[in-house]
Design a protein that fits this description.
- The chain is mainly alpha-helical.
- The chain has one domain (3-341).
- The chain has 16 helices and 4 strands.
- It has helices spanning 3-23, 37-44, 62-81, 88-114, 122-135, 140-152, 167-171, 181-187, 193-196, 199-206, 208-227, 232-254, 275-280, 287-292, 309-319, 331-341, and strands at 29-32, 119-120, 323-324, 326-329.
- Strands 1-4 form a two-stranded parallel sheet. The protein has a two-stranded antiparallel sheet with strand order 2-3.
- Its cofactor is Fe(2+).
- Keywords: Fatty acid biosynthesis, Fatty acid metabolism, Iron, Lipid biosynthesis, Lipid metabolism, Membrane, Oxidoreductase, Transmembrane, Transmembrane helix.
- Belongs to the fatty acid desaturase type 1 family.
- It is a multi-pass membrane protein.
- Pfam families: FA_desaturase.
């Protein structure tokens, strides 16, 4: 193991204890009228128009096309022909593994690392990194860079999954072809210094393939077989079904949540408020709000946990002293943005509906 990584990890542990002593009895939620300077700049530049029209070819990646196609065929065939033969504990275990992995994406890669909407002590960061690897997606660095590029250049040629190119492209088609040259050009300019300086991400990215394959495929296949005598066929295909389901749940945010729903916070962008997407993505479907306030740890205005379990997880970790500096805008700022920039509707599931002059309900 790299000596520098070990040293940085030790420093992180020392800092976590020091910080814990300071904030143990103070509020873990920071409410303010305006976000910190860096966040203001990020918000003001979202989305950023490109200085010129970017052209470029995107050759198809046949390996990805065939691989994604086969995975979906296997998952659908197994689910409709054999999965009903699965033992009771397989029905419980497989979704639970998928939901846990989903938390690694939503509370970890997305809200913690991509947006820095809250801070986490070393034990929680390691735990979230493990959960993220259980999802079997891509390296932390690549995922975070793509997401930051998506926010900064939403709905332009530099957006990795530009919703202007249609549902299929934004859902999965963008993975079936080479990146647009603009994605590479402008994505390389996104600040990733905090990511490269994080010893947890350094470690997990260095050994990502081994850790990911073990956590996403090997262990969840072996557990049902050796613990409750599930058949190899069912156990293997349960992993495939869970993997395909989690992939499509993630893709929903890029496709459905950029096309169908209302826009109570910013009427000029495609991202929408979509309760159905939030149900399947652990609270990531309140997308019009998220693109208006990307630095809010809730990724939504509503405090309700029913359609935002990722927020419940983060706040639980805060109560345990593992998460702190939870960033969220004041109600006054949300109301101002909603009234000035929204489409005149309010969030169907929100508590504070901002029923003011010039607005109307759904």
């Amino acid at each position: 193991m790299n000596v520098t990584i070990i040293y940085n990890a030790i420093i992180e542990i020392q800092d976590s204890f020091r910080i814990g002593k300071v904030i143990m009895y103070s509020s873990t939620v920071t409410e303010y009228q305006e976000p910190p300077k860096k966040k203001v700049e990020e918000q003001a530049s979202e989305p950023s128009p490109l200085p010129c029209k970017e052209e470029g070819k995107q050759p198809l990646i046949w390996f990805n096309i065939i691989g994604i196609g086969i995975l979906h065929i296997l998952a659908l065939h197994a689910f409709f022909t054999k999965y009903h033969e699965a033992k009771f504990w397989t029905w419980i275990f497989s979704p639970a593994w998928g939901i846990s992995a989903g938390i690694g994406i939503t509370a970890g890669a997305h809200r913690l690392w991509a947006h820095r909407s809250y801070s986490a002590k070393l034990p929680l960061r390691i735990f979230l990194a493990i959960l993220y690897c259980m999802a079997g997606q891509t390296h932390f660095y690549k995922w975070i860079r793509d997401h930051r590029t998506h926010h900064k250049f939403t709905e332009t040629a530099a957006d990795p999954h530009d919703a202007n190119r249609g549902f299929f492209f934004s859902h999965v088609g963008w993975l079936m072809m080479k990146r647009h040259p603009a994605v590479k050009k402008y994505g390389s300019k996104v600040d990733m210094s905090d990511v490269t300086a994080d010893p947890v991400i350094q470690f997990f990215d260095k050994y990502y393939e081994l850790i990911m394959c073990t956590l996403a495929f090997v262990i969840p296949t072996l557990i049902p077989v050796y613990i409750w005598n599930e058949s190899w066929y069912i156990s293997i295909h349960a992993v495939i079904i869970r993997y395909v389901w989690l992939l499509n749940a993630t893709f929903l945010v890029n496709s459905f949540a950029h096309m169908w729903g209302n826009r109570p916070y910013n009427r000029d962008v495609k991202p929408t408020e979509n309760a159905s997407v939030s149900f399947f993505t652990l609270g990531e479907g309140w997308h019009n709000y998220h693109h208006s306030f990307p630095w809010d740890y809730k990724a939504a205005e509503l405090p309700s946990y029913g359609l935002n379990p990722s927020t419940a997880f983060i706040e639980t970790m805060a109560r345990l002293g593992l998460a702190y500096d939870l960033k969220t805008p004041s109600k006054e700022l949300i109301a101002k943005v909603s009234v000035n920039n929204g489409d005149g509707t309010y969030s169907r599931w929100g508590i504070d509906h901002h029923q003011r002059k010039g607005t109307k309900g759904l």
